[in-house]
Each structure stands twice: as C-alpha cells, then as structure tokens.
C-alpha cells in the first residue's frame, strides 16, 4: 500500500522475511484470520512469485527454524522484519509472551535497543489506531 523498503531486498531476503512473518504469527500456537491476511498482504507487497507464496503458506503448519531464517537477512532486512513482525504480532489485538520473546531476539540481532523497541511498539499501536479511525470516518 505504501512504498516499502522490503522491495529493495534480494529475493532470498524477501522470502526469509515472509518466512519470519509465519514464524512470528504461529509462535503462539494459534493462527488467526488477521495474521493470515497480513502475511498475504506482505507477500504481495514483497512481490513474491505465486509459487513461492504457496511454499510460504505451506510453512504455516510447519514453520522454518528462526536461526536459519534470520541468518540469511542483512542488517536492514532484520530491521524491516522487526517492524513488520511487530505489526503481525499485534494484528490480533495483543502481544503473546512468545511473540514478544521472538521480537526481542530479532531486535537484539538487528542492533535495536529497548528504547527503540518500545518506540516501535508505540508506533504499531498508533498505526492500528489510525487505521481503525478510517472505519469510523467512512462508517464501515
């Protein structure tokens, strides 16, 4: 929907990004419709090939290994994944303890400190609030 730096990543990193979104969404043992929808949206934004998207969808029941996936991401790729992972984790209305733990691990790998991570969580909260305002403006 908006210009996104994920498109500047290599195909391998964009695939790893999508895999990481699946890991984050499924870490709490429950996949909800909102998580599936945001992952599909992010795969579209990443312009992943349809066959690659099928592979990612198949990982929903058997996610990849976190350490293997993050090892193929650059510093910028890790930061983009952290941002998008925070959105995925929050889309169902709250952060599960396991989601927070994996986001903190990702932040550490990306060189993001606790203050920046808190600011990111505040941004996510504000983003969801602003998005919901559009529903009330349009009465939908």
What does this structure look like?
- The chain has 140 residues and is an all-alpha fold.
- It has one domain (5-138): TerB-like (Orthogonal Bundle), CATH 1.10.3680.10.
- The protein has seven helices and no strands.
- The chain has helices at residues 11-26, 33-45, 50-58, 66-70, 75-90, 97-110, 114-138.
- The radius of gyration is 14 Å and the shape is globular.
- The model has no long low-confidence stretch (mean pLDDT 93).
Helix content: over 70%
List the helices and strands in order. HHHHHHH
Indicate the mean pLDDT.
Answer: 93
CATH class: Mainly Alpha
- CATH-level-2 architecture: Orthogonal Bundle
Strand fraction equals under 5%
Q: What gross morphology would you assign?
A: globular
- SS summary, helix count: 7
Intertermini distance:
19 Å
* Structural class by helix and strand composition: mainly alpha
Q: Give the CATH H-level superfamily.
A: TerB-like
Using only C-alpha atoms, the radius of gyration works out to: 14 Å
Low-confidence stretches: none
Give a quick summary of the entry.
70% of the residues lie in helices and 0% in strands. It has helices at residues 11-26, 33-45, 50-58, 66-70, 75-90, 97-110, 114-138.
């Amino acid at each position: 929907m908006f210009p996104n730096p994920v498109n500047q990543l290599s195909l391998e990193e964009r695939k790893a990004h999508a895999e990481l979104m699946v890991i984050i969404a499924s870490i709490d043992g429950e996949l909800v419709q909102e998580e599936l929808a945001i992952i599909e949206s992010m795969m579209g934004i990443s312009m992943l090939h349809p066959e690659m998207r099928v592979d990612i969808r198949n990982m929903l029941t058997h996610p990849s290994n976190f350490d293997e996936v993050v090892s193929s991401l650059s510093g910028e790729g890790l930061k983009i994944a952290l941002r998008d992972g925070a959105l995925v984790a929050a889309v169902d209305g709250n952060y599960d303890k396991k989601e927070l733990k994996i986001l903190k691990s990702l932040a550490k790998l990306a060189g993001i400190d606790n203050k920046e991570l808190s600011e990111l969580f505040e941004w996510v909260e504000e983003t969801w609030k602003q998005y919901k305002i559009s529903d009330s403006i349009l009465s939908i």
